[in-house]
Fold:
Amino acid sequence: MHYIHHDKFFFTNYHKLKHRLYVEGIESEFLAIEIGNMSIMNKTGHVRILENVLYVSKLKNGLMSLTQLVIKE
Structure:
């Protein structure tokens, strides 16, 4: 998984995960609750859809793989 976010407001087409999935942090694990898509926009207004983003409510910030984002451009 390359994208994780904590704010469900930004998700579209989301659904509950069929199995428990834990995301490992530095000192603890966080439970991923749902999975869905998110739209992001760059400075020029180009919109990109991120697919299969994990919803992890206990995170403080969203995380994404910039390498994966560049490769798919």
